[in-house]
Amino acid sequence: MTPTADAFLSSADPILKDLITRFGPLPDRVTGLGDDPFDMLVLTISSQQLSTRSARAIYERIRARYGGRAPTPDEIWADDPELLRTSTGLSHAKVRALRSLSEHLLTGLLDFDRLRALDDDAMRALVCVTGIGEWTASIFLMFALGRPDVLVRGDLAIRQAIRRAYGLESLPSLAAVTALGEAWRPYRSRACLYLWRSVEISPVG
């Protein structure tokens, strides 16, 4: 996908062409990371509104609580919520989110195999889980399911990158990011990778 996507984005947007020339070609990381989508969502939920360093520390404490590995939905659901919170540094809201996610998976309200087959409805299915909003769902669709056309429009780093690259006086609104991203279809995920690279910042919800 990389040469085709980069060529398309370069022809569609001269600003992105400059970023691709300066930083590309980036590794094609939007290919589906790992084999455990639940683990990816645990990481993404625990990372909400935190620096990369803080998020990683909390995620490692979560793994440590379950024997140095990723927990399963059954283990999260069976765990004592308060002990999970105090032993890992998760907030009350994030513990509720992890429990809601586990409940949705255990009851069949959310199914990862079915989710892979969905198109636009995938986002709606994810945000039905308590604590999963547009940012978390977008990151999951991009990095866990490898969707090539995801615009993480609410990500602070994306908005900062657009402000810098396009010479804006202030951060663009969500509507402005959405409008700008229309020219990047069907490779909006890759456009986001270049925008993140341009400011050397990981996704920030």
From TrEMBL:
| SUPFAM superfamilies in UniProt | DNA-glycosylase
Which GO terms label this protein's molecular function in UniProt? alkylated DNA binding; DNA-3-methyladenine glycosylase activity; DNA-7-methylguanine glycosylase activity
GO cellular component entries: cytoplasm; protein-DNA complex
Q: Which SMART domains match?
A: ENDO3c (SM00478)
Q: Which UniProt keywords apply?
A: DNA damage, DNA repair
Stored Pfam families: HhH-GPD
Q: Name one GO biological process term.
A: DNA alkylation repair
Task: Look up the domain of life of the source.
Answer: Bacteria
Q: Which reaction does it catalyse?
A: Hydrolysis of alkylated DNA, releasing 3-methyladenine, 3-methylguanine, 7-methylguanine and 7-methyladenine
- Put simply, this protein is called DNA-3-methyladenine glycosylase II
The record lists the organism as Cryptosporangium phraense
